[in-house]
Design goal:
Largest sheet: 10 strands, mixed
CATH topology of the largest domain: Creatine Kinase, Chain A, domain 2
Protein name: Glutamine synthetase
Number of strands: 19
CATH class of the largest domain: Alpha Beta
GO molecular function: glutamine synthetase activity
Strand content: 15-25%
Family: Belongs to the glutamine synthetase family.
InterPro entries: Gln_synt_N, Gln_synt_N_sf, Gln_synth/guanido_kin_cat_dom, Gln_synth_cat_dom, Gln_synth_I, Gln_synth_N_conserv_site
Structural class: alpha+beta
Helix content: 25-40%
Catalytic activity: L-glutamate + NH4(+) + ATP = L-glutamine + ADP + phosphate + H(+)
């Protein structure tokens, strides 16, 4: 049975009334188009759906706006969040004639997988992103020429211990003490279970869920690793599911890296490895932390290009409010075994030929997963091609708690950019590795940089509330 026949069969057997096709723009925001199933036929499933690319951030100008959404029939899954039985599919963004489009993030991820095979180094890469998020009871924010504020409400927040205008049972998550807390302190177990069950119903293999470190509703749900494009699809769908389940509970979710001051931020720790002919190329029982020389070169590439990479893996001004010392944030560009204060950690819980991998801890969940995974792969492959030894390059290993090292030792370590502006400037200077194999294009990188510079300008030219606290009465 062909994929077209399979999807048409699902439409008939499940009484599907609507087909919903999904894609992300250059910054990573999810978009969708809905088509009544009654007008769907085999020709549309293989020929795609026309749309206006000029209305999508980072895509085409109005004079060349005709584009096509081509369904990936392997991604068909039932969508429970809309009325009427609906089948959801991810799509590739194409130019007329179904030509490859350089700025389609999913297309970039596809080209990265193709380039990996062309190098002969490996035939597949595996990706296990861990996306953290906050669940709030409500949020209000506003920015104008005469006012700027945000206000977050969370029933489990420690700052609400003294409130008497609502039922207060005293079970609050203290600052930085939320990790793995049990009920009744963790009052979000049930909503995470509902999210987990919905993810499972949509094809995810969920391995665990738990409360994270911060107060006020920081959570994590882990799903099983997969290949690059599929893992990026799952990361995008994960955010869609988590947000919509929270909405059904009357709550709201944010993937902002640092929505709360004095609390840990949310990361997207990214586990990754390469394999060829079914063999994990990162494993060597005689190597440091069971890593092969190839894996160390890959680490060397990641850390060497990290300043530029972070423009893509940590792509918001808010990202760098998470990347500060003191909150387990990996600001030091070093690698280490089982050390969560390093930018790259080699998990040692179960070091076997099958499970050996590296974990890049710096990225956050605001990243476009297609671009972020592809960029990391390209950096790692550049490290392999150039045989960048991470130790010779000054990246460790550092097998101690970095946060408690003396200042003079810390001063010798290379660190992550301190702002989005620094990261974007690094990307301007260092992006040739992304262009290998036509995976990224100069056009896409220039578009991405221009969008980020607009965001930087928006922040830097507006007064912030904390500035009034610091300066108003001087």
């Amino acid at each position: 049975m062909s994929q077209v026949e399979r999807v048409l069969g699902m439409i008939a057997e499940q009484g599907i009334q609507m087909i919903d096709v999904k894609f992300v723009d250059v910054p990573g925001m999810l978009h969708h188009l809905t088509i009544p199933a009654a007008v769907i036929d085999a020709e549309q499933l293989t020929g795609g759906f026309a749309f206006d690319g000029s209305s999508i951030r980072g895509f085409r100008g109005i004079a060349e706006s005709d584009m096509v959404l081509l369904p990936d029939l392997n991604t068909a899954v039932y969508d429970p969040f809309v009325e009427g039985p609906t089948l959801s599919l991810f799509v590739d963004v194409k130019e007329p004639g179904l030509k490859e489009y350089s700025r389609d993030p999913r297309g970039v991820a596809r080209r990265a997988e193709r380039y990996l095979r062309e190098t002969g180094i490996a035939d597949v890469s595996y990706w296990g992103p861990e996306l953290e998020f906050f669940i709030f009871d409500s949020v209000r924010f506003q920015t104008g020429p005469d006012a700027s504020f945000y206000y977050i409400e969370s029933g489990e927040a420690h700052w609400n211990l003294g409130r008497g205008d609502l039922p207060n049972n005293g079970y609050k998550v203290k600052y930085q003490q939320g990790y793995f807390r049990a009920l009744p302190i963790d009052d979000q177990t049930n909503i995470r279970t509902a999210m987990t069950q919905q993810l499972q119903a949509m094809g995810f293999v969920v391995e665990r869920h738990h409360h994270e470190v911060a107060s006020a509703g920081q959570n994590e749900i882990n799903f099983r690793f997969s290949t690059l494009v599929d893992a990026a699809d799952k990361a995008a769908l994960y955010k869609y599911v988590v947000k919509n389940v929270a909405r059904s509970y009357g709550k709201t979710v944010t993937f902002m890296p640092k929505p709360l001051y004095r609390n840990s931020g949310s990361g997207m720790h990214t586990n990754q490895s390469l394999a060829k002919d079914g063999v994990n190329l990162f494993y060597d029982p005689n190597g440091y932390a069971n890593l092969s020389r190839l894996a160390l070169w890959y680490i060397g590439g990641l850390l060497y290009h990290a300043p530029a990479l972070l423009a893509i893996t940590n792509p918001t001004t808010n990202s760098y409010k998470r990347l500060v010392p003191g909150y387990e944030a990996p600001v030091n560009l070093v690698f280490s075994k089982a050390n969560r204060s390093a930018a790259i950690r080699i998990p040692s819980n179960f070091a076997t030929p099958k499970t050996t991998r590296i974990e890049f801890r710096t990225p956050d969940p605001m990243a476009n997963p297609y671009l972020a995974f592809a960029a990391q792969l390209m950096a790692g492959l550049d490290g392999i091609r150039r045989r960048i030894d991470p130790t010779e390059a000054g990246f460790g290993p550092v097998d101690v708690d970095i946060h408690h090292l003396p200042a003079d030792v810390l001063a010798t370590m290379k660190t992550a950019p301190a702002s989005l502006r620094e990261a974007v400037n690094a990307l301007k200077e260092d992006h040739e590795f992304l262009l290998e194999g036509g995976v990224f294009t100069k056009d896409l990188i220039e578009t991405f940089i221009a969008m980020k510079e607009d965001e930087i300008h928006a922040l830097e030219t507006r007064p912030q509330p904390v500035e009034f606290e610091m300066y108003f009465d001087h």
